[in-house]
Amino acid sequence: MSIGTFTIRALDPLRDAELLHRWVTDPKAAFWMMQDAKLQDVEREYMRIAAHEHHHAFLGLHDGEPAFLMESYDPRYVELVGLYEPEPGDVGMHFLVAPTDRPIHGFTKAVITAVMDELFADPRTRRVVVEPDVGNKAVHALNEAVGFVPVREIDKPEKRALLSFCTREDFLAARGVAV
Fold first, then answer.
1. In this structure, are residues 127 and 88 in contact, taking their beta carbons and an 8 Å threshold?
2. Cα-trace Rg, the chain
3. Cα–Cα distance between 37 and 18 in angstroms, integer?
4. Nearest-CA neighbor of 106 among 145, 70, 135, 140?
5. What is the pTM of this model?
6. What is the C-alpha to C-alpha distance for residues 130 and 133, in angstroms, rounded to an integer?
7. Where are the strands (E) in the chain, listed by range?
8. Cα 92 versus chain centre, distance
9. pLDDT tens for residues 107-148?
């Protein structure tokens, strides 16, 4: 059974702000840590990301409709500075699936797979790095399903996080692709 087609486009901080505001303030997005954000806060945050040389935001579409948010960042300059020893080709990643009243079985795994496909489409990407909240067990399971290997817990200013890595080979192996 096909879940549909995923595409990814650059996020427009002003045009997409209302949509993002609904997503990041939804109770299911608690780990995004923007529950109390006002629309202007969301606009400001994504304008900041748009202006940042080492942090990028994208809107993911499912069959042409907005369905998820994806961020990529260079961990040498953003999020993980001083918290681990980055290697050449490391790319940090965040993703958020839009809340829905009509869940599709396997959708979130399909989204993270599309995100990883997008990141590894760049031949310079050797390893994807994530740092989800240690309490976010659902995302830990998803991460492991696509090949992430937990390394250790780290303390970030806003949370205790589980630092995890996924090499291109780990990702392909998790998908059953011979490497």
1. no
2. 16
3. 11
4. 145
5. 0.93
6. 10
7. 6-10, 55-62, 65-73, 90-97, 127-130, 149-155, 160-167
8. 8
9. 999 999 999 999 999 999 999 999 999 999 999 999 999 999
